[in-house]
Structures are given as C-alpha cells and as structure tokens.
Amino acid sequence: MRSVDLPTHARAQRLRRDAPTAEKIIWRHLRNRSLAGHKFIRQSPIGPYFVDFVCRERKLIVEVDGATHSTASEVAHDLLRTKYLQQNGYRVLRVSNAAVRESIEGVLELILAAMEEQEG
User: Domain DUF559: where (predicted)?
Assistant: First the structure.
C-alpha cells in the first residue's frame, strides 16, 4: 500500500468536497475514463501545487478558472505555477467557469484536441 501524506491527502479531500460548480460539472464528464477512455484524477498534488484535473498518461492538466484568477497578483501566481508544471513535462489547459457552464461539449472537445496534440 502506498504511503499517503496525511496533510496533503486531507487537503485534496477538502478541495474535492468544496469544489465549485464548474469543477463538479466537468468532473462528471472526465471521471471513470468517460472521455475517450483517458484516466483523469482531480485535485492531485504535483510538486507544491494542487491541480484541478490531470491525465498523467498524457501529461495534461486542466485548470478551471473562476473570478479568483483575475488580479495582477493572481495572474502572476498562475504564471509561476504554469511554468513549474511545464518544466515538469505537463501541458496546462485553462478553461473558465463560464465556458464549462455554457458549453461543456466545447470544453470537452478542447480537452480532446489538446490530448491529440500530445499524442503526435
């Protein structure tokens, strides 16, 4: 059995429990290999960061951004975070809460297209 860092595990559980509506919507379409058979996990730690959704096989991270990603300091933090994740081999795809709520099918197509780019 794999050792679990309890504070990390507890934080991941809290993030999943308190997920915004848009994250819950997208999760319904990503869980249980529902998107073209690809395995996604949510609120997973990668280095010092927790990512909303990750497909480790394709090294693709999907971040669902709401209004809290709009101030200068938040944008700067997101840039540092993205740079770290990219340096560790991940591609970061950012989608807005509004896009998820208004066009989940469009968001899923965007994710699939990003995964196909990773393939080639």
Answer: 9-115
